[in-house]
Q: What sequence folds into this?
């Protein structure tokens, strides 16, 4: 589950709010141990996702680096390489 959380800092173009929220959803799912909360827990899960997304957005916005921004297409290509190697 956490393998699908991608590095969002220092990207060109910058990470969108939707990407940050998707990562927050994955993180909360991992912590809660469920992919779909019950109705009784839905509000707590939604609140947690909102809080994690807000914290992640603040973090990404506050980070500084001297490295050049990472190219999204190049990062996607690198992520596909191990899959290709495993499948032969």
A:
């Amino acid at each position: 589950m956490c393998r699908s959380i991608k590095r969002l800092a220092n990207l060109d173009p910058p990470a969108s709010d939707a990407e940050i929220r998707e990562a927050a959803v994955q993180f909360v799912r991992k912590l809660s141990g469920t992919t779909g909360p019950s109705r009784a827990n839905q509000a707590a899960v939604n609140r947690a996702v909102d809080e994690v997304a807000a914290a992640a957005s603040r973090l990404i916005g506050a980070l500084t680096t001297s490295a050049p921004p990472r190219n999204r297409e190049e990062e996607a290509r690198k992520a596909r390489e191990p899959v290709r190697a495993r499948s032969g």
